[in-house]
Amino acid sequence: MKDLILRVNTLIEALPYIKEFYGKTLVIKYGGAAQMSESLKHSFAQDIALLKFVGMKPVVVHGGGPEITHIMKKMGKSSEFVDGKRVTDDETMEIVEMVLSGKINKEIVALINHHGGQAVGLSGTDGTLIEARKLHEDLGLVGEVQAINPQIINTLDEAGFIPVIAPVGIGEDNKKYNINADTSAAAIAIALKACKIIFLTDTPGILRNYEDTNSLISTVHVNEIDDLIKDGVVKGGMIPKLTAVKEAVLSGVSKVHIIDGRLPHALLLELFTDAGIGTEVVA
Asked: From CA 244, how far away is CA 237, in angstroms rounded?
């Protein structure tokens, strides 16, 4: 009986959050360790399907950096990074698109559909969803978002589908560009007027001390981000993530969550429990 009461209490705890987010758009950036385990892949797909079933509008934007590096190594090609960005020549761009659009995107779609959702895979080049321009000559075909054209996402949403997006952009020169998934997720959230972005990462959230998992900062105000970067609290790959977070919050996304994608059902734990599990960034 105690077990049954605990389950009911869990549902009751989730009820106000389900009510609050009903009909709202949530952008979920999916990457890192959450993609590296079969059990975590399934728990993520279940979470996304459940969000849709209870009336929310999830939009998934995924990365795939470790898998791209792995495939490049198998093909005898080394990876070069500048400020955390992969230098992308023509051959590397082909590999990026093959891995993101041809492999990872299809796997995510298949898993969500397996768990009862109706997902559709997209590249940012489909319907000119992500318009891009070259970021820097030294980086090759690395792009930055110039514009988001959300019509194709809105059409899928109206038909009841869950969009799953690979962050490959198309330029005015008709070239395809490799775009940071965090930046893409933020730009898409702004264009869709999403109420939230949730970043699944390889850390519990923003840590005051990177080596101490107990130093989690549960709430960060957007005007604190620059100081966290300047003081060295935020380093490496977390810098472009927080830069994207800052832009999203300042552009109207009310809240951004940075959570540990290594935890099963991390999405549900963050969205539907009073305590949450990660860091929230607010205006």
From this structure: 12
